[in-house]
Write a structure and sequence with these properties.
Low-confidence stretches of chain A: 588-592
CATH class of one domain in chain A: Alpha Beta
Mean pLDDT of chain B: 90
Helix content of chain B: 40-55%
Mean pLDDT of chain A: 85
CATH superfamily of one domain in chain A: PPM-type phosphatase domain
Strand content of chain B: 35-45%
Order of helices and strands of chain B: EEHEHEHHE
Distance between the termini of chain B: 22 Å
Largest interface: A-B, 30 and 25 residues
Oligomer: heterodimer
CATH architecture of one domain in chain A: 4-Layer Sandwich
Number of domains of chain B: 1
Low-confidence stretches of chain B: none
Shape of chain A: rod-shaped
Shape of chain B: globular
Chain lengths: 726, 100
C-alpha cells in the first residue's frame, strides 16, 4: 500500500509537471502568435494606409488633370468672351462654340452683370448639350435669378475662378454637376460678366469606382461644404452631408463630425468609423485647388483578412502542435506509469519470494543436536529464491531420523511440493521406525495429490544411535557417500521416486554404522553443478573434497567453497543441498564387549586384533588358542571385506561373540551378496609346489581352527556361525 | 609390520618383524616382488620376530616358493614360533618348505 501511494504521488507529480510544461508551451505559442499578429497587423495597416494614400494621390492627379482641362477650356475663351462683351448678340454663338469644342463641358454661359447693359438688364445665354445637340437658352429668367446664384456671385466677389458646389442638374437628366466660373473684365478692368463651364461629375464616380483597393472599399468625394459628391456605395445618398449620413446610419455622430470637419478643413489622415456594425478605416486627403476632399473607406475586416487567414492557419498549427505535445506527454506518462507498475509488481513479487524463502528456510532444521555421539551439518542453497530441495532430521527414541530430497523442477511450484513432502516426512515418521514404511506412506500420499506430475527423489534413513546401525530406504535419490577410513558409496536399491504411482513397495536396506562412520547426503545440484564450459562438478571432485578427517560443518564449507570456485561466473543451475552426519557413538559398546562392526576396508582388520585381545581377557583364553581364533576370524572377515560388496560401495561386517556353555560362538553378519564359504572346495594340502593353489587357504584354516562352521542366508544377510570349544 | 632385506654374496635374508595379517601383506607386496627376483639363489626368510601369519601371508610365502621352484633356487624359512608352526601344519606348508 505504501508503494502504491508513492507511485500515485510520483504520477501526480509528473502529471503536474507535464501540465505545467503544456501550459508553458501554450503560453509561448500564444505569445509568439500574438507578437506575430501584432506586427503583421501593424504591417497590414501600414500597407492599407500606403495603398490608400497612393490611390488618393492617383485620384488627385486624375481629378486635377480633368479639372485643369476644364479650367483651361474656360480660360482659353476668356479673352474672346471679354472681347464679345461689346457685342452681346454674339455671346450666344460663343457659348455654343465653347460647348461644341470641349466635349467635357456639358454647358456654358456668359452671364452679364445687371448694370452692364441697360436694354437687357439681365443677359445670360446658356448653351448646353441635350440628346447629342447643342441647344441655347437664356438663364435670365425671373424664377432662376442668376445674379443671386453662387456660381455668379463668388467669382465676382473674389475676382478669381470658382468651382461651385456640386449640384444635381434637374434639366439635364439627374446628373451631378459642378460649374467653373471666371469673371470677365472690360477694358477698364471692371468685372462685367461671368463665364462658366458645367462639368458632369460622372467621370469622378467612375474614377472612384475604379479605384477599389480592397474588394469592398469605396471612395467618397466631399465638396467644400461637406456634401457627398460621389460614392459608389449604394447606401450613400448623393448630395447628403456626412452628418446627415451619420444620422441616417445611426453612426457615432461625434466621429462622423470630426471626420467631416477634418476633411473639409483640408487635412489628410485616417479615422476609423463604425458604420452599420462594421468598422471602416477612412483614409482621406484634400483635392488641391478645388476645396474638395477625397476619402477611401476600407472595411477593417478586409484590411486584416489576410491576417485572419494566417491567424486561422496559425491556430490550427497551434492546436495540432498542442495535441501532439499532449499526446507525446501522455504517452510518456503512460509508459512511465506502466514501467513503474511493472517495477512495483516485480518488487512485490520479489518481496513475497523473499518471505517465501524465509519460510522455506525456517522449515528445515538449522539447529543440530548437541550430543557427543553426533556431529551434524546441513546446508540448502536454492538456485532461485525458493527451491524444491529439502532435508530434515530429528531424534526420537534414541534414533536419528533423517532425509534428503529433491523435487523435480525449481522455483515456487517445487517449493510447495517440498513443503508438503517435508510435512509428510514428519507426519509419517512420528510413529514409524522403518524407513521403507515411511517412504511407502509418503509415496501413497504424494501420488494421491499429485496433479502436476511432479515427483520427489528422497533418501530416508533411521540411525540407531545406541546400536550404531543404519536402516535406510532410497526412492530414486543419489546414493549417499559413507566416510570411514575410506570414501564409499552406500549401495541402494533402484526404487522409483515418490509421487509417480501409489501402492508401490519400497525396499528397505540396512548396514552397520559403527563408531566414527559418517554419511554424506547431497542432491544432484552438487555433482551436476556446471561451470561456464558446461563441465560438471562430478563425483570425483566431491570425493576428493571429502577426504580427511574434519568436522561436519568444515566438510560442508569446503564443499560449498569448492563448488563455488568450480562454477565461477556461471549461474547456479539447480538447488544445492547437503547433509552430513558423523556418528561418534557406540565405541565403548562395540570394543570390549561382544560386538564389533568392521567396514569393508581391509585396514579394519587391525581393529579385529584389538577386539580379540579383549575377548581373550574376558574369557581367559590361552595365547595359542586366541591366536588361532584371531586367525580364523580374520580369514572370515577378510572374505566379506574383500568380496561381499561391489567395488567402491560401502559395506560392513558385524561380528559377535557369545559364550555358550563350554563353547564360544562367533557370528559374522553382512549385507553383501550371498556367499557361502563352507561350500568352497577343499584345498589339497598335500599337493606339491607346482600344483598348490594360491587361494582357498583362508576358509581351510577357519574350518581347521573352529570346531564347527555353518552358513545361512536370512533377511538378505549372510550369517556365518563358528563355534570353538574351550 | 616391517621387512628387512639383507643381501650377501650367496644369499638373501629377509627378516619379518611383527604381524603378517591381510593389511600387512598388502603393505609389503612391493618388497616381496623385489624378493621374488632373488629366488634364483638362496632366500632365507627369518621369522624369529614374526608373531602372526594369516592366509595372505601364506600366499606370499607360497608365491616365493613357486618362483624358486621355477628358477631352481631355494627358499628357507628360519625360526618360526609355535603358533605359526601349527598354521604351517594345518596348511601342509611344513612339507613345502625347508624349515630350519
Amino acid at each position: 500500500m505504501k508503494l502504491q501511494g508513492s507511485i500515485k504521488k510520483l504520477v501526480r507529480e509528473s502529471a503536474g509537471r507535464g501540465f505545467l510544461l503544456i501550459i508553458v508551451a501554450v503560453l509561448t505559442l500564444e505569445a509568439t502568435a500574438l507578437i506575430q499578429y501584432y506586427y503583421s497587423r501593424a504591417g497590414m495597416r501600414e500597407e492599407a494606409e500606403m495603398r490608400a494614400q497612393s490611390q488618393l494621390e492617383t485620384n488627385q492627379v486624375q481629378i486635377l488633370s480633368i479639372i485643369r482641362q476644364a479650367e483651361a477650356a474656360v480660360h482659353n475663351n476668356v479673352w474672346i468672351a471679354s472681347w464679345c462683351l461689346d457685342n452681346t448678340d454674339s455671346l450666344g454663338s460663343l457659348v455654343r462654340r465653347i460647348v461644341a469644342d470641349n466635349p467635357e463641358i456639358t454647358g456654358s454661359t456668359i452671364a452679364l452683370t445687371p448694370r452692364y447693359d441697360k436694354p437687357h438688364p439681365l443677359l445670360a445665354p446658356y448653351a448646353y448639350r441635350k440628346d447629342g445637340e447643342i441647344l441655347l437658352k437664356s438663364l435670365a429668367t425671373p424664377e432662376y435669378d442668376y445674379p443671386s446664384q453662387e456660381w455668379f456671385t463668388e467669382p465676382i466677389r473674389t475676382g478669381e475662378g470658382y468651382w461651385s458646389e456640386p449640384y444635381i442638374d434637374t434639366g439635364g437628366g439627374e446628373v451631378l454637376m459642378t460649374t467653373y466660373s471666371v469673371p470677365l473684365r472690360d477694358h477698364s478692368g471692371r468685372i462685367t460678366a461671368v463665364l462658366t463651364a458645367d462639368i458632369s461629375l460622372e467621370w469622378l464616380s467612375n474614377l472612384v469606382e475604379h479605384a477599389q483597393i480592397y474588394p469592398n472599399s469605396f471612395g467618397v468625394v466631399l465638396s467644400r461644404s461637406g456634401r457627398i459628391m460621389v460614392s459608389p456605395a449604394k447606401d450613400l445618398d448623393m448630395n447628403m452631408t456626412v452628418q446627415e449620413y451619420a444620422e441616417q446610419r445611426a453612426g457615432d455622430k461625434v466621429v462622423f463630425d470630426s471626420l467631416s470637419r477634418a476633411m473639409i478643413s483640408g487635412e489628410s489622415g485616417n479615422i476609423a468609423i463604425n458604420s452599420g456594425g462594421k468598422v471602416l478605416q477612412v483614409f482621406f486627403a484634400p483635392v488641391e485647388h478645388t476645396g474638395w476632399a477625397m476619402s477611401i473607406a476600407v472595411p477593417e475586416e478586409e484590411i486584416f483578412a489576410g491576417l485572419r487567414r494566417v491567424g486561422i492557419v496559425v491556430k490550427i498549427l497551434q492546436l495540432f502542435g498542442l495535441a501532439l505535445l499532449i499526446f507525446i506527454f501522455s504517452s510518456l506518462v503512460r509508459n512511465q506509469l506502466r514501467y513503474m507498475q511493472a517495477n512495483e509488481s516485480r518488487e512485490r513479487m520479489e518481496g513475497e519470494l523473499q518471505i517465501a524463502r524465509n519460510i522455506q528456510m525456517a522449515m528445515v532444521p538449522r539447529v543440530f543436536p548437541e550430543r557427543k555421539d553426533l556431529d551434524m551439518a546441513a546446508s540448502l542453497i536454492p538456485a532461485k529464491e525458493v527451491g524444491g530441495d529439502l532435508y530434515d532430521f530429528f531424534i526420537r527414541d534414541e534414533k536419528l531420523f533423517f532425509c534428503i530430497g529433491d523435487v523435480s523442477g525449481k522455483g515456487v511450484p517445487a517449493s510447495l511440493v517440498m513443503a508438503v513432502t517435508r510435512s509428510q516426512f514428519r507426519a509419517f515418521s512420528a510413529h514409524e521406525d522403518s524407513p521403507a514404511k515411511i517412504v511407502t506412506a509418503m509415496n501413497d500420499s504424494l501420488s494421491e495429490m499429485n496433479e502436476n506430475e511432479m515427483f520427489v527423489t528422497l533418501f530416508c534413513g533411521v540411525l540407531d544411535l545406541a546400536a550404531g546401525h543404519l536402516k535406510y530406504c532410497n526412492a530414486g535419490h543419489n546414493p549417499p557417500v559413507i566416510l570411514t577410513s575410506t570414501i564409499q558409496t552406500l549401495p541402494v536399491e533402484p526404487n522409483l521416486p515418490l509421487g509417480i504411482m501409489g501402492g508401490m513397495p519400497f525396499k528397505e536396506q540396512e548396514t552397520a554404522f559403527p563408531y566414527d562412520s559418517a554419511i554424506f547426503l547431497y542432491t544432484d545440484g552438487l555433482t551436476e553443478a556446471e561451470n561456464l564450459g558446461h563441465d560438471q562438478f562430478g563425483e570425483g571432485r566431491m570425493e576428493k573434497i571429502l577426504h580427511g578427517r574434519k568436522e561436519a560443518s568444515a566438510h560442508l564449507q569446503n564443499m560449498a567453497d569448492a563448488v563455488h570456485a568450480f562454477v565461477g561466473e556461471a549461474p547456479q543451475s539447480d538447488d544445492l543441498t547437503m547433509l552430513f552426519v558423523h556418528y561418534l557413538g557406540g565405541k565403548s559398546e562395540s570394543i570390549g564387549s561382544d560386538n564389533l562392526i568392521l567396514h569393508n576396508n581391509i585396514s579394519q582388520i587391525t581393529a579385529l586384533g584389538e577386539w580379540m585381545e579383549t575377548i581373550g581377557e574376558k574369557y581367559g583364553i590361552d595365547m595359542p588358542t586366541l591366536s588361532g581364533l584371531n586367525l580364523a576370524l580374520e580369514e572370515a572377515a577378510t572374505n566379506v571385506i574383500m568380496y561381499a560388496y561391489p567395488d567402491g560401495a560401502y559395506g560392513s561386517v558385524e561380528l559377535s561373540c557369545v559364550k555358550d556353555g563350554g563353547a564360544l560362538r562367533f557370528t559374522l553378519t553382512d549385507t553383501g551378496k550371498p556367499f557361502d564359504p563352507t561350500a568352497r572346495p577343499e584345498v589339497d594340502i598335500n599337493a606339491g609346489v607346482e600344483e598348490r593353489a594360491i587361494g582357498g587357504l583362508g576358509i581351510h584354516l577357519v574350518k581347521n581352527i573352529m570346531d564347527s562352521v555353518s552358513y545361512s542366508r536370512e533377511d538378505g544377510k549372510n550369517i556365518l556361525t563358528m563355534i570353538k570349544n574351550i | 609390520m616391517e621387512v628387512k632385506i639383507q643381501k650377501t654374496d650367496n644369499q638373501v635374508v629377509a627378516q619379518f618383524i611383527g604381524r603378517l595379517d591381510t593389511p600387512a601383506s598388502l603393505e609389503i607386496a612391493p618388497q616381496m616382488e623385489q624378493l621374488k627376483e632373488e629366488t634364483g639363489g638362496t632366500v632365507i626368510l627369518d621369522c624369529s620376530e614374526l608373531a602372526y601369519i594369516s592366509s595372505s601371508g601364506l600366499r606370499i610365502l607360497l608365491t616365493l616358493r613357486k618362483a624358486a621352484a621355477d628358477k631352481g633356487g631355494h627358499v628357507i624359512i628360519r625360526s618360526i614360533n609355535d603358533e605359526i608352526r601349527s598354521v604351517f601344519m594345518m596348511t601342509g606348508f611344513l612339507n613345502l618348505f625347508e624349515i630350519q
